[in-house]
Design goal:
This protein is α/β, with parallel strands linked by helices. It contains 9 helices and 10 strands. α1 (8-18) packs across α3 (62-77) and α2 (38-49) crosses α8.
């Protein structure tokens, strides 16, 4: 097992060496040619990000650093603006500096460890700005997705019996990452009235580390942020289904979610609340309106079988098209949104299994009772997690073998508050 506290210079050196093997369309994160379709570009990008070359993109590993540099090079090639970083002389001014490294936001995360002192982990988010046009350019919409996955760590995996195999996380969440990169390409070509902060988070699998750091170190005043759109596990669309969370976090969200669904229409399952085990929750807890998009759980979640060849590329393009319409509606509307607390629940109490309290198959959030019927679409019935009994048996066997105690779990009830697919990461 690699130490979480390895010297950062070693990681970056390894990342630079690994980056030489990128896919032809994705090489060095270069700007896509105008003739490359969204489908071909996202297929190339997800094939690279979810390749064994990146070793599962575990936070604090060379593969994660490689992914960050790949994304940063793409934003630099698209001539997006970097965020000013006062503590880095070369990046202090921000803007179009022509320096890919200035899109990388290094920070030190604090990783909780069961029955031990927290670990300090050097890692990074990646962020860029697409400047807005006109009088609303001083306001912002945040669009984000986490790019980390489990790497080779069996903690949090649903197949722990396989040990330290690579878990590439094509759907979780290379899929959301490439959609955000595609949105950056489209927004750079045709900017919105408000500026858009494009952010790729690390550390989600360890407990929303990257998004919580970012929201606590926003490069712009919080009151100027109009909302946040998150994409997590959007690569396995079936039957045109897209689940959208947060539709009651602002009065205008329901209309935006509906108007973005143009022909050929998606089967939208709308859920009002903005809580949940993904990066949007960090922003919702700062009283920001959020939308979170998700194409539902599947058998390969948090296993070594979540590979790029199983991604529904046509569905991924449809998610990108829908997300673009929603982002533009938020970023171009003349007035500010009206955040709503009608569906607000406290941050979930989480039963955690494993050495590190991060999102795992046996992690079941418990929410407060519903306060409004609008907090969930009555048409939405989340799919039950597949093979849960087998997963718990495998996890229990692995835990006993490793000398760890197994935390008992309880299936959550599906009230209006909890009727969402809360097993995703």
């Amino acid at each position: 097992m690699r130490s979480l506290n390895r010297p950062r210079g070693t990681l970056l050196a390894a990342a630079i060496l690994l980056s030489a093997g990128c896919h032809a369309f994705a090489r060095q994160g270069e700007a896509p040619a105008a003739t490359v379709s969204a489908a071909d570009q996202m297929r190339a990008d997800i094939t690279h990000l979810a390749s064994d070359l990146l070793d599962g993109r575990g936070t604090g590993t060379a593969g994660n650093d490689t992914a960050a540099l790949f994304i940063a090079r793409r934003y630099n090639a698209l001539r997006l603006s970097s965020i000013a970083q006062a503590d880095r002389a070369a990046c202090a001014k921000g803007g179009r500096l022509g320096k890919a490294d200035c899109f990388v936001l290094p920070f030190t995360a604090t990783v909780p460890v069961r029955n031990a002192a927290p670990r300090s982990l050097k890692t990074q988010n990646v962020a860029a700005i697409v400047p807005g046009k006109g009088s609303l350019a001083g306001e912002y919409v945040i669009v984000g997705a986490h790019f980390d996955h489990l790497g080779r760590d069996s903690v949090g995996a649903r197949d722990p019996e396989k040990g330290r195999v690579i878990r590439n996380g094509a759907d979780d969440n290379a899929s959301g990452t490439v959609v955000v990169m595609e949105l950056a390409r489209r927004l750079a070509r045709t900017p919105t009235r408000r500026s858009v902060l494009i952010v790729n988070f690390t550390g989600e699998e360890l407990g929303l580390l990257g998004s919580e750091w970012f929201v606590n170190h926003l490069p712009v005043p919080l009151e100027r942020v109009q909302g946040m759109v998150n994409l997590d596990m959007v690569g396995r669309m079936k039957n045109d289904k897209l689940i959208v969370y947060g539709v009651s976090t602002a009065a205008e969200m329901k209309g935006i979610v509906d108007s973005a669904n143009v022909a050929p229409r998606l089967a939208i399952s709308a859920v009002g609340d903005g809580e949940g085990p993904s990066d949007h929750a960090a922003f919702y807890r700062k009283d920001l309106p959020v939308l979170h998009m998700f194409t539902d759980l599947h058998d390969d979640y948090h296993t070594a079988a979540d590979d790029a060849d199983k991604i529904n590329i046509e569905g991924l393009v449809r998610v990108a098209d829908y997300a673009e319409r929603a982002v533009r509606a938020i970023a171009d509307r003349p007035g500010r949104g009206s955040p709503s607390s009608a569906c607000r629940s406290p941050a979930p109490t989480v039963r955690r299994h494993g050495r590190v309290p991060g999102p795992t198959w046996d992690r079941f959030p418990t929410w407060a009772p519903p306060t409004s019927r609008e907090c969930s679409s009555p048409a939405f019935a989340p799919a039950a997690p597949p093979s849960r009994a087998a997963s718990r048996e495998a996890t229990s066997s692995s835990s006993s073998g490793a000398g760890r105690s197994r935390t008992s779990t309880t299936t959550p009830t599906h009230s209006a508050r909890t009727s969402r697919a809360m097993w995703w990461t």
